[in-house]
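User: I want to check something. If I give you two sequences, will you return the structure for each one separately, not as a complex?

Assistant: Yes, each is folded on its own. Here is the first sequence with its structure:
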Amino acid sequence: MSKSTISAKIPERLKKELEEEGVNISKTVRNSLKEELKKRRREKLRKKAEDLRSRLKGKIDSNQMTAMIRETREEH
């Protein structure tokens, strides 16, 4: 897997405190970025589902809609 380097400036005091606590800063940043990406993808999917629900309102049974959303979630 190809990797990229990023950098961020944080206060020196914060870096020192993190190091004193034994925090693996790189790992923590990676995990935080992964979680942020998941959160944004979930939100995008939620918005798409809401849009679909409003466009299909009255045209499809709510049980069918629930089944369709579950299928979509399982695909991702």
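And separately, the second sequence with its own structure:
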Amino acid sequence: MSDVMLFQRAAPSFAAGLAKRGHHIVYRANESNHCPGCGRSQWYIGRISAECGFCGTAVPLAETYRQEASLPKARSTKPAPSADLRRHPRMSANGRKLQLLIDGSPTKFALHNISEGGAMGDSVTELVPGAQVHVRFEGGILVPAEVKWAEDGLVGLAFINPVILDRSKAPRN
């Protein structure tokens, strides 16, 4: 088995996510690469992918990384009042009760809203930004999170890895 080549320009979260993704076919520089489609080894190399010269199968380059595009700087120093620059839209979750595991001990957590990236709810203890907690959902699933802010009896949590939420309107039985 060949080693995975990691370069310094990739973000640490990218390197940590490789183990979670499983087996992926990639084109590796300085190695003999055979096409998964036809088995030949003639390639056209681009900036982010390599294409087989015989059958046209495309595979990503192992040495590339994904970087989110940044928003251009606004000319005005005042932010637009209706601008919501969140990555994931929030869903109201009033009345939903979860558990927070703080240093392994469960604490009730009344949820206000939730998104794929985090949650906001009533703060029951003195949580400080940067604290690591686990959120226990109704099915017993534990999701690691970090406290981003805590003020006015509320706490904002950011999930370490995004979660998948059911956004369907149909009621669940």
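Because they were folded independently, the notes below concern the second chain alone. The beta strands are 43-45, 49-52, 58-60, 91-102, 105-114, 118-122, 132-136, 142-151, 154-159. The helical segments are 12-21.
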